[in-house]
Design goal:
By secondary structure, this protein is α+β, with helices and mostly antiparallel strands. It has helices at about 115-125, 150-160, 175-185, 190-195, 215-225, 230-245, 250-255, 255-265, 270-280, 325-335, 355-370, 375-385, 395-410, 475-480, 485-495; strands spanning about 1-5, 10-15, 20-25, 30-35, 35-40, 40-50, 55-65, 65-70, 80-85, 95-100, 105-110, 110, 135-140, 200, 295-300, 305-310, 340-345, 430-435, 440-450, 455-460, 505-510, 515-525, 525-535, 540-550. Helices cover about 30% and strands about 25% of the residues.
């Protein structure tokens, strides 16, 4: 799997059936090798390739102990390539493909899902290389630990009969998680796509369990489950290996103390088991240290991408709830300032929801944190029943994100670190885009943060890649944008003193409920967002397209 391409270097992730020396050779220029490391009886490698030629797209080959294993002999697919950008790529467009929520099998709970949008995109790329993006950004629910396929459930029932504790329809142990990744990533089209397009990933709740870290009382209830410690340890350890390692640049990998220990260990099982438990320690308003930072950032040309952890490091202390602890928020603010043209923020949960749902979540946050036990219990029950745990349910974080975007978009001395334009004035970014998933429908919304704002701010939501929203919920997602419904729910929120947000937003496209992938193209000062859904025969068709610029 090709994960990062940074200048003249690239990183590739792979899993092998036994210990080996992995070597990558790139036609024309570039090579790298690394030994596998072992954990839980599995073997993995992160290979850094050096010496890549700028502005090139060259095929590569992967060897294990001098035996070529990729591309496979007699493969019907095009040769995988590593593409680099020009040495001076300031004027070169940037293209990001993004989406979330992908089931690895076509059938779930006895029903057939619509065609997989990632498969459709892969097939198109095979015949039209000009559509190749710079990066694939996957925004959560890459696997579903709590909604498993018939094949995985058969495996789980066998393990439970043999004494492995846990539900018969949900994964618990690291070994069980590996079956989810194998099932999802062995899809031939997706396997080829991952081998030729760089990708970054962030988790959402289903990598662990539905509503992961929705509240402090949720954590208390889960801790009482006899299988939870193994579930959280195996889930976070497997996420670290299968998804997070590839988010890091070669320099970040070299600097990561856990990766160094794992790579040097004869068997890293105990290291990773302890790590999975340690990084699940809840944050609090008093203790703002981050046990491990899952959020990450990178630059592609003149575009800065910052991807946020919306799940693991939440502060759940009543009265001080936050999407990010203070230390990680400060890191984000620092990365949000700098010398770039476009800021793209990856957030598995949408920042701007349909307004009626926003006010409902804000109302629920107040009720759930009531000083009256019965009211708080009612609010907590509603929160869990209806999944009311997006940014609006973390009101202080919602407002802080809007205020950060306002400061950036207005430019000026209050946005330190921005490049200086003509006449010595600070220039705001050409655009700010929030990429999200989770909600199983797609839409585009624009934020209005005031007349002094020169930078357009957009919410781009694309979900699911391969799943579906239940039919009864679709009308609710539509009416949640209607002014009359919004006015009614806002009136409800006012009864518990929820203030009107400092910004407004309106929907420009959607909602679309089919499987989809989205493209964000950034060219000079112009950003273009495009959402494509799948047809019945598995092709892509346009659903929405929006251009915006300062």
């Amino acid at each position: 799997m090709l994960r990062r391409v940074d200048g003249d270097r690239a990183t590739l992730w792979l899993e092998t059936s036994e210990p080996a020396q992995a070597r990558v050779e790139v036609d024309g220029a570039g090579a790298g090798s690394a030994p596998t490391f072992s954990a839980y009886g599995h073997h993995y490698a992160m290979v850094t390739v050096d010496g890549l030629a700028p502005d090139s797209a060259n095929p590569y080959r992967l060897f294990l102990d001098d035996r070529q294993v990729w591309p496979e002999e007699d493969s019907e697919y095009p040769a995988p390539v590593i593409r680099t950008r020009a040495a001076d790529d300031a004027g070169q467009p940037v293209s990001l493909i993004f989406g979330s929520c992908r089931k690895g099998t076509p059938q779930v709970s006895g029903r057939w899902l619509p065609p997989d949008a990632l498969d459709a995109f892969s097939r198109r790329l095979m015949t039209d290389p000009e559509t190749r993006p710079d990066l694939l950004v996957l925004l959560g629910d890459q696997v579903y630990a709590d909604e498993t396929s018939p094949k995985v459930r058969r495996f789980l029932r066998s393990r439970r009969r043999n004494g492995h504790q846990g539900p018969t329809d949900q994964v618990v142990a690291f070994e069980e998680y590996t079956k989810l990744y194998l099932e999802s990533w062995r899809d031939p089209e997706v396997r080829w796509l991952f081998s030729t397009v760089p990708s970054v990933m962030i988790f959402d709740d289903h990598e662990l369990i539905d509503d992961w870290n929705t509240s402090a009382s949720w954590r208390t209830d889960m801790a009482a489950q006899s299988w939870w410690r193994e579930r959280i340890s195996g889930g976070l350890a497997s996420y670290w290996i299968y998804q997070h390692l590839g988010n890091l640049s070669p320099d970040e990998l070299a600097a990561d103390p856990l990766f160094r220990k794992v790579a040097e260990a004869e068997d890293a099982t105990d290291l990773l088991r302890e790590f999975g438990l340690r990084v699940d320690e809840p944050e609090s308003a008093e203790n703002t240290d981050v046990p491990y930072q899952w959020s990450f950032a990178l630059d592609v040309g003149r575009t800065r991408l910052v991807v946020l952890d919306n799940r693991c490091n939440r502060v759940l202390t009543p009265g001080a709830r936050a999407m990010l602890p203070a230390a990680e928020w400060n890191w984000f603010v620092d990365r949000a300032h700098g010398d770039y043209d476009h800021l793209v923020v990856g957030s598995s949960l949408p920042w701007l929801m349909p307004p009626a749902i926003h006010y409902l979540e804000a109302w629920n946050e107040r009720i759930a944190e009531s000083s009256h036990p019965r009211a708080a219990a009612f609010g907590e029950k509603v929160r869990r029943t209806f999944d009311l745990e997006h940014w609006a349910a973390f009101g202080k974080s919602f407002a802080a994100l809007g205020e950060l975007f306002r400061r950036l978009g207005e430019g000026g001395p209050e946005a330190p670190g921005h490049r200086v334009g003509a006449g010595g004035a600070y220039r705001a970014p050409a655009s700010i885009s929030v990429l999200s998933g989770d909600v199983h429908h797609s839409y585009v919304a624009r934020a209005d943060l005031g007349h002094a704002m020169t930078t357009p701010v957009y919410q781009l939501t694309c979900s699911p890649i391969h799943n579906e929203v239940p039919l009864p919920l679709r009308p609710l997602m539509r009416v949640a944008w209607w002014p009359g419904v919004v006015h009614s729910v806002r009136a409800l929120a006012r009864t518990v003193s929820v203030r009107k947000p400092a910004l407004r937003w309106k929907k420009l496209a959607g909602p679309y409920f089919g499987n989809a992938v989205a493209t964000l193209r950034l060219d000079g000062a112009v950003a273009t967002a495009r959402i494509e859904g799948t047809t019945k025969d598995g092709a892509l068709h346009d659903v929405a397209s929006v251009d915006y610029h300062a």
